[in-house]
Specification:
The protein is α/β, with parallel strands linked by helices. The protein is built from five helices and seven strands. The relative contact order is 0.16. The structure holds inosinic acid (IMP).
């Protein structure tokens, strides 16, 4: 039975979100730091799943108890899927939206499709499984909104950018929420084991 998970992150926001979601299952989620692990593997995968498993495996090797890790990013149709796994490294922090709008300045409406993807890897020594969520939308023509982070101000869905949504509204449609819902179902199904 799984009653404790190590999350391969020290990001407090990610931890809080996962803890809240898994709370009803009675699963305790601890950070890698709390588990006494100090590893930072090179995220050199070419897919979100590869990077997620690189992070999960590195922590699993140290703790030998069930581990989850996530990786996410933005894929833009008109840029052949870029920045993808390079989303965090695409531009200096705070400049990613401006750079993306500049690259997209000649792309007409109708060709501005994009999606966010989040992949969560689970590993427990016997099983390796992946839960993926996607959020489809379009790249706006200018940045709008004050909420969220990263590319939220330029990612539009139903007439609003993600940065114009409350976190409650964003959570209903986000790639991360979808992947986390799948993780919840996966762990719920394995509870009886
Ligand atoms: P990581 O999964 O924490 O490595 O995040 C990868 C990068 O993808 C972040 O630094 C953001 O630039 C981008 N990203 C991932 N999810 C979101 C989101 O929900 N909104 C905006 N940007 C995101």
């Amino acid at each position: 039975m799984i009653d404790r998970l190590v999350m391969a992150t020290n990001n407090a926001n990610k931890l809080r979100e996962v803890r809240e979601i898994l709370y009803p299952l009675g699963i305790e989620v601890v950070s890698q730091q709390e588990a006494g692990v100090n590893v930072e593997p090179e995220e050199n995968g070419v897919t979100f799943a590869e990077n997620a498993i690189i992070k999960a495996q590195a922590v699993y090797n140290e703790v030998k108890v069930p581990v989850i890790a996530d990786d996410s990013g933005l894929c833009v149709d008109a840029l052949d899927g870029r920045p993808s796994v390079y989303s965090a490294r695409y531009a200096p922090k705070g400049q990613e939206c401006d750079k993306l709008l500049d690259e997209m300045k000649n792309v007409p409406d109708g060709l501005r499709g994009a999606y966010f993807e989040c992949c969560i890897a689970f590993i427990d020594g016997e099983n390796t499984d992946f839960m993926t969520g996607r959020c489809y939308g379009t790249i706006s023509h200018n940045a709008r909104g004050e909420n969220g982070f990263g590319y939220d101000p330029v990612f539009e869905r139903d007439g609003k950018t993600l940065a114009e949504m409350t976190s409650e509204e964003k959570n209903k449609i986000s790639h991360r929420s979808e992947a986390l819902k799948k993780l919840y179902e996966y762990l719920e199904n394995r509870k009886g084991e």
